[in-house]
Every structure is written in C-alpha cells, then in structure tokens.
Amino acid sequence: MTEYKKLLKNTNFLYLWISQILSQLTIQILNFLLIIKVFRETGSAISIALLWIIYGLPSILIGPFASASVDMFDRKKMLQISNFLQALVIFFYALFQGLNLFLLYGAIFAYSFLNQFYVPSEVASLPSLVKRNYLSFATSLFFITQQISLIVGIGIAGPLSHLLGFKNALFLCSFFVFIAYLSVSFLPNMKTKEIKLNFENALAKYFQQIIQGYKYIKENKLVIYPFLLLLGMQVSLSIIIVNIPLIAEDIYLLSVEKASYYIILPSGVGAVIGAFSVPRLLRRGVRKRKMIEKFLLIITLAFFLITFLLSELSMSYRVIVGAILVFFFGLSLTAIIITVNTFLQETTPKDLRGRVFGNYGFVLTLATILPIILSATLTEIFGIKLLIFTFDLIYFTTLIFIKRGNFSLMNSKLEILTK
C-alpha cells in the first residue's frame, strides 16, 4: 500500500491516471447508452451484438498498426490528438444522433478507431513517467481501474440518461474526454528513442512482443490457468452486458430504463466494495485459491436463483431479491478479477508483464466476438433464461475444476505467496 501512496505523489502519473479514469468511464457509459438506444429501436439481441462487434473491429483491423505507430511519434501528442478527436466524435454524434440509427454504428466505430491509438500510447507512457521499481504497481493500478470503470460506467449510464436525457448524457461524455485531453496536456513531451524506426520494424516489434507474451503464457502452466480464468470472466461479463436489456425485460420484468437502477447500480456498488475489500483480505494472508472458490460459488448460486426463482416472485420481492443477487455478483466478479490479476502480477517476471498485460485488450476482443454472436443467436431463439443457466453451468464446472486440484501448480505457488 505504501508503494501506491508514493506512486500517487507522482504528479505526471496522476495526470495520466485521470485521463485513463475519464476515458474508461466514458467508453463504458457511451457503450451502455448506445445499447439502450439500439434495443429501443430494434428490440433485438443480435442488433446489440452487432454494436459490440463494430466497436471491436478496429482493434482487429488496425490495432497492431496503431500500436506500432506509438513507437514512432511523441506519445503526449498521440494522447492529446486521440482524446480531442474522441471528444469531437461524441459531440457531433450528440448533435445529429436523431437522424439515423446507422450513424450510431459509425460513431462507435470512429471512437474505437481513435482508441486504438490512445490505449497503447497510454500504456507506453508509463515507463517514461514512473520509476522502474514502481512500474508494476502503476500497471496493476491501471488494470484494476479498467475493470472497475467497466461496472461503474455502465452502472451510472442509465441514471445519467434518465436525469439528463440521451443527448445531454452524450454531451457529458464528450466533456469527460475533453477533460482527459486537458489532463494529458500537462504531461512532458515523450519522444521515444526509437522515433527513427521505420513502420515495418515497429510493426514487427509489436508482433514480436505479442508472440513473446503468448509463448510465456502457453509454456508456463502456473500462469495459463489463471490467465484463462481472467479472460473467461471478462468474456462472460461482456456477454451479460450485451444482454442486460433482455435480462431486465424477460427476467426482472422491468423496462430497460429501470435496469440501471435495479440491476447495474447494485452490481456496481458490489464491485466498488469488492475493489476496496479484496486487497485488504489479500494483505491479511487469505489464500487466493480459497477466495476464488468462494466467490465462484456465490456467482453460481446467484445465477441459479436469477434463472429459476426471480420471475416467480411478486414485483416488490423481485426487485429487492434481484438487487441483492446482482450486488453479490458484482462483488464476486470483481473479487475474482482482482485476485487473479494480483496472482498474475506476482508470478509474471517484471520484464514480461508489459507483454502479458499490454496486449490483453487485443486478446480479449478476439476472444469476445464469436461468443457474443453465438449468445445473441441463442437468446433470440431460446430466450435469455437458457443463456443465464448456461453461464451458471460454466461457473459451476470451473468451480469443480479448481476444487479437484486441477490448479495444483497454482495452489502450491499461492501457498508460498500468501505466507
């Protein structure tokens, strides 16, 4: 904890962290605002899945090239230009959003396109702003901020839309990104030493780092299972977010607008509590494997009750019980993500952490697209309850897998780490 306090005394790091917080919150708020709008217009899970896929396309199409370009230009300018143009994209979409639904898909594609330059510039700026012995703590803090922003951002999207209206909520998002632009403007210039590299060499270096990270994960059984667990939890969360409108209407029997109050907000509160409480438990020496098992069990029970009990209750009980269940889901999911992330940070050598975590977003996008398409199709044909029950079975199977000792290599290491 002392290291984090010292890290936060670094003014340049704070400027970058403020930009990250605002950028992450904005994209999560924006995503859910657009999900609500698409569902209102089409009522289709496949249309929502299409929105998510379009957001992910730039990561696949130009992500590697954008990441390579980070090694060729001043990173401060890359951050500034990306933030400023993103603010403009949201602002102009807010002005003309009533003209055509397809304009929505174009806006989210443009925002994501610019994000392919912002995110790698942000990650690559850390070594220039933070001393080497604090770099792992900065990386960890950025990763945790990303996870918390995901739940908090979509948690406040509905209330913002309800209180301010869709258009004004978009203007607020544009304002957030503009503040992020101002924040990075206070950073020093960060011209890379490799600025004379040609584009081909920079691109080759990017893919070489991906391959090195992939080889390390693949060949290290101590890391591969926790990494897959982390990836799986994130993929499942993305699928659940895409299907929130259907969960609200078909299981909670609520309007989409009320989903933020009774579904997302309680889960966001649980996530925040988990984010603050889990690190304390870890510092007290609670074994990570035991924590993962207990929180997986909570998620399994919560999903089982959501699937088979919730819609049978009266409205008042349904709202109360449903809010409690998603509260524990948010708390448990965040607890698992932080616990697994902490383990990976502790076991991955410092010189490989950037390769393992730096390309996590790219890997997550690739891993998410096909499951989202399949889940949307499954939901359209068989309904949302089958999808939730399928996740319940997956979580339960994962729990059994861990309890039977298939994480045996991880267990022995965890015992060392928690002494």
UniProtKB/TrEMBL annotation:
Keyword Cell membrane in annotation: yes
Membrane topology, from the record: Multi-pass membrane protein
Record keywords, A-Z: Cell membrane, Membrane, Transmembrane, Transmembrane helix, Transport
Cellular compartments annotated: Cell membrane
Highest taxon listed in the record's lineage: Bacteria
Residue ranges occupied by any Major facilitator superfamily (MFS) profile domain in the UniProt entry: 222-419
Pfam family for this entry, one: MFS_1
InterPro entries: MFS (IPR011701), MFS_dom (IPR020846), MFS_trans_sf (IPR036259)
GO MF annotations, alphabetized: transmembrane transporter activity
Protein name per Swiss-Prot or TrEMBL: Major facilitator superfamily (MFS) profile domain-containing protein
A GO term from the CC aspect: plasma membrane
Annotated signal peptide: none
Keyword DNA-binding: no
Transmembrane residue ranges: 14-36, 48-70, 90-114, 169-187, 222-247, 259-282, 294-311, 317-344, 356-376, 382-402
